[in-house]
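Let us work through a complete example step by step.
Step 1: write down the sequence.
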Amino acid sequence: MKRTSTLSILFALIFSFPFTFSANSTVYVNNGNSSTYILYAGDSLHIASGTYTGTILNWQEGAKISVANGATFKPSSFSYFLGDMYVYGNATLSEINGQSASYHLKNYGTLTISGDTYLGNDATLENTYGATLTFNGSVNSNNSNVVNNGTIIAKNDWYSGNGSVLTNNNMMTVEGNLQINGSTSGERR
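Step 2: predict the structure and record it as tokens.
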């Protein structure tokens, strides 16, 4: 009678599955430097500490960027926003050009957009409770979803166009003109 070790079967199963599902994805961890990244579908970049000041040359749908509490994401150059971004710490972006149904930005910390913001094609932006999101440039959303449960400060004009949903559940200040055209808005406060 031949005995097969349960442990050897378990190892065989564990080591066969991860390579099948993640063979083409890469996890990058950055502790605050100026590295350059190309993020393909399935890749993720985590800013664990320090201040990241590098370049994101390409960011495809299905790639993720996360910024840890206490870390800062301040890239010198950035491509179109096509993946997911989670900000728990601080982030300063030169602009947002989110044109993908797969684009999702969720802010738990402090996020500043220095230039203009465009959200379209079912992009989603969520500002959570306790988070602060500041737009220094104009905001233009078409066919997208913006949900605010924290504080939004828009220092310029805000246009919410066709098919967009703007939901404000906490504090939102628009210092320029607010125009809602062919969209849905809800404000509880």
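Step 3: interpret the result. The helical segments are 6-22.
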